[in-house]
Task: structure prediction
Amino acid sequence: MRTLVLVAALVVCVPGLLAAQSPAASAEARSGERPDEARTTAAAIEAVVRADYTKAATLLKPLVDNWNGSVSEAAAFFLATLYENGLGVPQDLPRACALYTRVYSGTGPFARLAEPLARAQMTDRLNPEQTRECVMLANVGVNHGFAPARFSLDADRSVAIELSNKKQEVVATVSQQGEEKTFPLQAALGSGSVFLPIEHTVLEWPRGSGSLRHFVEVAAWVPLPDARWQLAWTLAEIADKQVLSVAEGALTTIVGETRPSDVSVRLRELVTLEVNEAGSVEFAILNGTDATRERVPDVVERREREDELQRRRAADQKVNWKRRRDPGRAPSFAYTDSQACGGILLSGWSAERAESIAIRADRFFLEQTPSPRSFDLAALPPEIEVVVNVFEQGQRGWSACSDVTTIGQDQNQETWRAVSGTMRIDLSPAGARDGAASPVRATIQIDDAEFRGPAGTSRAAQPIKVSAVAVGPVP
Result:
């Protein structure tokens, strides 16, 4: 055991720390160390001198809890020596290494003593896995509170949530019939994070079907620079052999210089996860700037969306993005793809991505409009707008919920507005999914359309039709 290091440190440092017990001397005891920390550290060192290592460890541990702030370097150093030698605590070389590393990253007198000890741990005493654990603990903190968890999903499938030293992140490993696959979880993992217990929620969906959907939630208190702590939350679904990221956000914020002493927060008071009255799985962050309520798509929907993205990427590869066209040309009124959001905005664009149509319709207005929802383009109510944009070059920045695109400084665009014709808006279920409620598909058809732009008027040679599944709240 390296007790000689501990004895040498005691000989060098005890006089100064004992002197720090007086208010007059405490300001000069150590840069960044508060008087109460110096007194407690001095008491811990006196306990070491008496060989009362258990009391020394008990006194020192609280002084290194606040990993994000100004950790007492003296306390961290002496606690590291106890962990390295197994005095008053079980021997824990990775933890000792992390504490030494934390100290030598500082600027105080103990940094010079700690640096060679940390390097010696990594090169001489720790195996590769222990070295990775040292790095993890040094970055996150020795008291992060993360507790690994394993949940049984069904007869032959389970998931394990762990803090991976190798990947330096929180991961989920799905096991099924002897096969394992690991996925990263977008959990908050930073200096000083304090984790809550992992939550596993099972929902029957659709109701009465016997089919189960499994969700895991990871939450951690994350220190903010202005003496506050924010509860960061991550939601993921275990679907088949995959772990699918669903959402992340901040659930609440509290004020305090030190880490939260009570981490047994009731998540369901801050965020809900349930099958709603409409039969859909949804989560809701109840308070704060990240407050939201969103439906959680199932695996089939996710696959359809991914297929749609792949199709769009393939279409984009066929576009000549460098080609320039006359922005004053008449619109083609031919659109090969579209997107929608629950606002409702329906956007469609041409194959060469150099023309778009945007139809805005206030959802509350549509709720009050009886079917069939038909409108005269020559006398549109203020709640509805129909415009076509013609661009000089193909545009990449299409958005599902905005027709605004980023136009280069050397590019031009012209806008055409509908002046005559009829428009019909149909809202219908996007397709039943095992009896559960589905998103709404918005389908818009414009007949005998005439638009006015900088070059005069232009009439569509055939009906304009765009259709897409609306994302978000819909009427």
